[in-house]
User: What shape does this take?
Amino acid sequence: MKNFTIYGNPVIHSKSPQMHNAGFRQIHFNGNYDKTLIEDGKDLKNHFLNEHISGANITVPHKEIAFKEADKVKGIAKKIGAVNTYINKDGKVFAYNTDAPGFLKAIEEFEGIKNAIIIGAGGTAKAIAVALTQADIEVTVLNRSKNKLEFFKNLDCTVYSWDDFICEDYDLVINSTSAGLKDDEYPTSLEMLEDILNVSNYAIDCIYGKMTPFLQKAKENGLTFKDGEDMLLYQGVLAFELFTGVEADKELVEAMRQGLKES
Assistant: This one.
């Protein structure tokens, strides 16, 4: 049996095991997917290799250090500087980013998006920003501090910290932070968030499986909104294809979606 896992901190909330194990059952693949708490990202690669893990997903806050520790970075991940998928190839770590194409698939139902604002500047934000800019969507990035904004400047994104933010009109507002995951926090001050939502049409939270304070405010302001379930599903499907070498059909995607809904 091949072993797979998701690394993160926190990771207890993750539904990736239910999703991937449902996929394994669908195609009769001899694999098992678990979850592993890693507090120090520098321990991730050693655990992956020493425990003979065949493939893994990486979630917050380890996506950027996982990029740095990989032996070989493939595809769009090179531009993003963050990875969410590891593949063990003969003791070498090959790293990929399926967040970016997964996000674009997740927002297909939002029509006419020409510009977007991303709240946060971590590894997930980087993936989304690269995906959106490659789709010719103008991107603004808002982060609490000026730290981490240089990457987005180099992508020709408009960047702001909380101190210098000037609100404009946005088709889509994205919460890429962990605010609301374990608490009742907003990703910005409430006043700033209200200003953004008042001039936006759509909202998506990268957190999945709960009505976060961010999404609740989006609902109150009349936006069309969704949580991160579809982003999780589609990035998971792409990672699953890397894990198994099997191209996903509609039945497999639906099996993985149903797996996400398991408690």
Remarks:
- The first strand starts at residue 2 and ends at 8.
- Residues 116 and 172 are 5 Å apart (CA to CA).
- The chain has a mean pLDDT of 97.
- The chain is about 40% helix and 25% strand.
